[in-house]
Every structure is written in C-alpha cells, then in structure tokens.
C-alpha cells in the first residue's frame, strides 16, 4: 500500500477553519480529485488519512501535515496538484513525498511560530521577551473542556525573539481582505520555537506567560502563524524539514516504476474531475 | 462609488466568537463578481444561522441563476449569532455578505427567503445591522428594496410593514424579471425614485407591494377589505410557476461549506408540487401542479453535482419522492451507477406503502439498514380521513412487516397532535399503533431487538389550506394530550420499553400559529419582541414564549383582538382572510368544500390518476400537470473498453 505525506497550509481568512472542518473538506477533496484511497475495514469504511498536530482554530499555518494511504500507487506530485486544485484557496497543498520511513508523527517534534502583535512596540516586546526567558518556570492556565489546567509554558520554549527589520512579513493576513497594515508604526513580530510536549505549549500559552511575567497585553488579538514543523536541531536551534528522511530514502525512482505511475495518473486525469474551473 | 469590504474590521472580532468559519465565505463553488461591472446587485438572505441557511436550496438556486447573468451580481448573507451581533454593534460593523463582505445596505435588493415564520425577528436584526430603516415607508432611494420569498411569503402580512415587496411561488424566473425592471429603471436615471420602481413592479401583477394596499377592519377586529391604493395596482397578486424543471437544472454547482451544516449532501429536486391533498399541508397546496424532472435530467444533475462537490450523499428531494412516475428506474439507475463509489442515496418524504420498501432496499444495497421513517400523521382511521392521508392501518402493518423482513430494525413514525376534530382517543391510539408495529416486527424477525420511535409535532393551521379556517389547539390542551399519551406508553409493560417518544411542548406552535395566520397588526408584536431581545425563534435555547405573550398582550388589546383570536378561533366562510388578495391559484370555494369534506370525514383522491377535482390552480395559473413516464433509462456513466 502506497502512503503519501502532504504538507498543507491554512492561510488568510481560512485560518478560522477548525480541524474538524478541514477534515471534512479534505475528504471531499479526495473524492473530487478521484484519489484512489484505501479504506478502513468495518461497518462504515472511511478513507485512511492520518492527521498530525493540527494548529488551533484561528491560527494560520504554513506547515500542517497529514498522510494518506492509497489503494493504487500514484505520483505524489500529481496527487498534490489535484488535491490543491480541489481545495479552496488558502487551504493549499504545498508539498508531497512518498512515505519511505516510519515514525513520521514522532518526527514532528517542534514548531516555529510567528506572532504578530499589532499595537505593541518592538522595544516593549523585546523587554517582555527578556524577562520571560530569564524566568525558570512560567506557570500559565488554560481553559479546557475538563476545567482549568495549570502548567509550565517556559521549559518547552527553545527560543523566543523579536524579529528585526521591516523585511518580515506576516503570513496570517496574506490573502486579500487580510488586515496587515505595513504602515502601522507599532507592530512587534515574535519568533517562537517550541518543543512539542505534553501538555502542548501553544503560542497562546506563551502570550499568557508574557502577560504574567512582563505585563505585556496586546490591544488586539495576536495574528499567529506556524511557519515550520519538524525535527528540532539542537545545534542550530532550528526546526528542520520532516520530509528530508523520506527524500533521502528515495532510490532515484527506476524508470519502469515511474512510467507505471505516469500511466496510472494519466488514466485518472483522462476521466477527469469534470466541470471544475 | 466604491464599496469596501468590511472584512478587515470583522476579522478583528472573529477570534472572540463561536464558529468563526461561518462568517468568512470562500466556499467551494461560491462566486465573487466585480462590483463595478454589475448594475443590478442582490444580497440574498436566509434569516437563520449559517449552518441552517447555507444548504437552503432556494437561496442556492437563485444565487446561481443571478450570478450567471452578465451585469448581475448576487451575494449571500445569513443571521449572525448574538455573540457576533453584540460585537458588531460595539464596533460599528454592518450586516455583511459572506462572499465579498460588502455591507448589505449597499445592494439594490435584499432578498429574504422565509421557509418559516420563525425567522421574522432575525429579519429585523439584519435590517437594523444593515442600517436599513425597519419600516418600508421610512426608506429612501439609498436603501435596498427588501423582498421576501419562500413559503411564508404566501401570507407576508405580519411582516408587511418591514417589506417593500413579496414574491409568491417559484423564484427562478421571477428574480430575473425583477432584475430587468430594476435595470431599466436605473438606466433611465431612476425616474420617480423608489416609489416609481415599486409601482412598476406592482403593476406586473407578480410582485406584491404591501404599501400599495390598504386594510380596513370591522369593529369586531375582522378584516373588512383589502384595497389597492394606487391606480394600475391589481386587486390580487399571483404566484409564479416554473413549468419545465429540466430547463432549470439548478443548483448546478452546489455550495460546499467548510463549516459543518445541517445537510451535507447533493440535493436534487426530482419534482415540484404535490396533489396528494393532505389537508394540513401548506407546501402541497401552494406548489401545485406537480411538475416532474425527467429521469435523464435527474441523472445529469446528480453526475455533475457530485463531480462539482465531492459529496458522499445524494438526496432525491420533493414533497413525496416515491410518487415520481419513474422513481423505480431512477433509484435503480442511480444505485447501479454509484454502486462502487460509496455514494449514499436518500429518499426523504416517502409514503407508507410496500413499494417504498423495495425502493429503500435498492438505495441501501451495500449499506446498513438501520431505520425507516413513515408519516401516517394520524393514528386512527377516522382522523386520517379528516386530514386526507389515505393510508390504512393494514397498509402500515404490511409495510412494516416487509421492512423488518428485509433487515430493517427500527421504524420511526411521524404524527401530529391538535388536528381538527381530534379527540384524546385519536392521540392515545398512537401508543397502540407503535405497539402493533413492534409486535409485527417481533413476529417477522423472531427477535426482540425491535424499536419503534414515535415523533409528534403540534399541528399549526396554515394559510391557503383547507384548514385555514380551523381552530388551533391551545398549548395547554396539546401538552395535556401528549402527557396522557406518554403515560399510556409507560403503562405498556409488553412494548413500552421499545417505544421511543419524541415531542415538543405546545408553546412554540402557538407563536407559529400567530405568525402564520396573522395580519398586519401582528407586525407590532414582532417588533416589540425583537426590541426586547427576541432572536432566533426557531432555536429552543433562544425562543421565549413569555416574551411573545407579554408583547402580544401589550400590543393587541388596542385592536380588540388577542393571541387566541388569531390561533384558537375558528373562522367562518364569510370572513376576509388576511391573505385573500394573494393568489395561490386555489379556489377559495374549493378550499371551503374540502374543509367541509374534512369535517364529514370524506376523502379526496389525487388528480394525477383520477379526474380533476377543480382546486382551481391550473386554469387560474395557466399551468398543467407535468408527469412522465418518459420511458428512458439511466445508462452506466462510463464504458471503459478493455
């Protein structure tokens, strides 16, 4: 059974898509794109899709991941293109690899986030970041379905900094109708690298931590974007590409296999997702 | 004049509200046309939450038809939840469309589709948030025309003060005709302003402009007469009827939302209208005659719609789907086509007969056979004769036996409480019928794992039906009868535990009754309720019976009437009804005879297979019954040569 791993985004206004909403939209896109999915056994078979670490509703993301299992092999790039065309703009499928390794979910060990704080001066943010980082543990509280939970938001933070210069772009407002105002004088952009722990420390929790340690209170909700997700490189302190091991394991596909896939794919596109603009 | 998107301002509010995805638009198959390149612009509203409004077929059809026209634009707007409403008021964000987030006040027309009267308070919220004066008479040339459609538009009198126009019947051709009238008037430089535009629309005879009609009352509160107040405005306004459904295969590109909605399926209307003649059924009465979509037209819509949406379920909609003249071939053809594609087929609104079990079997070839729903509506032979629901208890039991024999395990039965002439015994018999169904199921299957759920709705008399004169049962009496029934079910040691019992209390039905058969004086009650915070009256968590009764008690006494006068009072033959000047095609004398037949427990057959019974629709509207069979079949979609 062929498995394909996909990277997708939640951009612009579609960042308000909840994970459940995305799942339904994605499964419909699979049907429109006529991807020959493998189905689970049982009374109500459903297509085999594994989702990992969905970003919270309202946060944008450039780096969401999922894996699909196919009943017949297909060229990953063609599948990516068909799925991208079948999803609304903003939910974009940006990368695909054939799965050649295991433990993919474990490889998503850390995330890099951008937090855009409109109405906050960069100096003000920098001071808050310094006092946050200088603190050993930062207790924060989060409202969950089971009640209020208290945990440390500091230990999982690998780095936190104020991005310098106007060259930074906020991805959260990237689509037309977004609210990015480059002329707004007071706007601080934070870069956050956080390890995936249990309980997960989210950008919101770090913002709560900044509030409790340094009284940083942005006047409008922060525009948050996940920029990357993957293994954490201790040496450089960065998040690296989770698809790299799959690419490295690719034995420069032999022509027969590639030819076979191409044939299969053209058969699918020949029937075509008709009527699609 | 450029019209800017309010999205930047709205976006800042969205992190603070529930289900923000419902406000962002961008649905698959939605359309955004350039504002400047269009000269007639419609905002289409379904006055309920997005999750209910988005799947509405009426709005979807008109949205697509209007957007297909060059120079015409249509965008959608829905009721915002109270959490966002409060924030919009605080931050000055107006009612917006979800497509381009343009302010509703900037459009030429606000078209509102009322499937139910319980959306009236939501209309006022939307008008207010849009900055449109609530009363039509206070609007000027800068405000959109507010036009109502949908089934409730057959008696728009309770909201007459808030509407510029109402359109009765099928909207497909009507919206295009209205568009042309508006376009011509704008091209000419808007001569005579808003008044002239309304006059031109009213003079077509197909658009009701309440402001051009004066209502006079008798001292006892009854209506004396309704008179057109302007020259050239007709005494009666006629409904619209689309005659060839195959010419209108909409929606071609159904909207697919990101947010979860109440119906997630590809819906195809397989026919419009119904002449079964159930006397309580407003939908059946006002949508006559029956017009079928052809089997090939249905197959085509399903094929294209599935490709455009990726939906997993197809709903074959109509008022009584098994009555399509070629339903057997439709079901078999679709089941054959999609047998290997994991596409579910559903056939809502079917009648009680064994043929429907064959259909249901066909539609669930691969799937599980969990539950079947039937609507006998009344539990005794007598009450079924009153309502003209021609099904015998033997039919029902035989049908149920077939169902159980074919592997179905759960049967759901719909009934109404509060039907004209109903006695306690008619309601209590529901328990006996459910017990007989279970007994039959146990006998056929040899097992005890059999359930029967009875679901009971309160009957509300509706305009343009033979029961439009009938007294509605009071909320207290409805509740008392349902309690007795509940006790009867509980006492049944043999079957009671296997009978599920679902019902609503009688209070919402009284408000629905007030709004259904109300006149213009009820408009003040609606406004008072809205001003006191009334919203989303179709939602149990928002509906307040007390608020409605308190508001009615403040407003209505000055007219010498009250809620009972509108609901539980029986009307006489001579009475002028608030909707008499709105022509559904039904002959009022025929309706009265059918009402008398109901009281005499006389049944009436369907005019599709018996001679015309002179309900009046076809001659009045220039229409005729359009049914098959065409004799055609659905062929396999693709033949792949090996």
From TrEMBL, chain A:
Signal peptide coordinates: none
Q: Which InterPro entries would you find in this protein's record?
A: DUF2344
Q: Where is the DUF2344 domain?
A: 3-203
Region annotation (Disordered) ranges: 229-277
Residue ranges with Polar residues bias: 268-277
State what protein this is by name. Answer: Radical SAM-linked protein
Automatic annotation (TrEMBL), chain B:
Which molecular function terms from Gene Ontology are attached?
A: catalytic activity; iron-sulfur cluster binding
Entry-linked CDD domains = Radical_SAM
Annotated Radical SAM core domain ranges read 260-502
Q: What single Pfam family name could you report for this chain, choosing any that match? A: Radical_SAM_N2
- The superkingdom listed in its UniProt entry is Bacteria
Matching entries from InterPro entries are given as:
CHP03960_rSAM (IPR023862), Elp3/MiaA/NifB-like_rSAM (IPR006638), Radical_SAM_N2 (IPR045784), rSAM (IPR007197), rSAM_horseshoe (IPR023404), rSAM_sf (IPR058240)
Q: What name does the UniProt record give this protein?
A: Radical SAM family uncharacterized protein
The root-end lineage is: Bacteria, Bacillati, Actinomycetota, Actinomycetes, Kitasatosporales
